[in-house]
Amino acid sequence: MRQDQLFETLVALMGNDPFTAHRLSSLTARRFKADKKALEGREINQDFGESLERKTFPKPSCYYQLKVTLKDTSAPCWRRIIIPDTARLSDLHDEIKYRFDYFGARMAQFYWPKERVYIADTEGETCEEYMLVPDYKLSDVLSVGMRLNYTFDFQYFYEHTILVEKELKSPDEVSKRLAMEKGEDPYVLHGDFKDYDDDFDDDLEDEDDK
């Protein structure tokens, strides 16, 4: 992503605050130069995410047991994720999309007290790749007991809390009695998206009338 593209994206995200956007775009551009993996970008499934089972990773030293909880729902909605420490934030993003049945090319971000990491869609929904700035390896970010946040879609803001519950030597250590998910399709549970779906159905009816 060129710095001018990054600047335009950040201006929109910062509520049209060009001064803050300029500072952040400059910092992020320098980080791109320092982080080869982020500069190259990683292909991310823009439609439905991608299961970790379809990916291969360098040999891990441990696995993280994460509990990802969707906020502001009428009923509890969460998923547990077992992920190797050699996976990256982009892989976690892919798995969250896959497990929560999120659809489409959307802006997203991870953030915790000392960092905020954007997944930048540089060309809207026609873009063939996302870039994650920077695409940290999970072992460089996560620790047991840590909480971080994840936002999917900057129009409707699906907000999540991610809790690092445990470190495991192997996925086989997960108890077969441990619940791995709870809650229905988030599109049903999240009030904003219910309204959005109604508007979308109305638009389709309007198109049929034309």
From TrEMBL:
Residues 64-176 form the Plasmid pRiA4b Orf3-like domain. Transmembrane segments: none annotated. Residues 195-210 have a biased composition (Acidic residues). This is Plasmid pRiA4b ORF-3 family protein. The lineage of its organism: Bacteria, Pseudomonadati, Pseudomonadota, Gammaproteobacteria, Aeromonadales. Residues 188-210 are annotated as: Disordered. SUPFAM superfamilies: MM3350-like. InterPro entries: MM3350-like_sf (IPR024047), Plasmid_pRiA4b_Orf3-like (IPR012912).
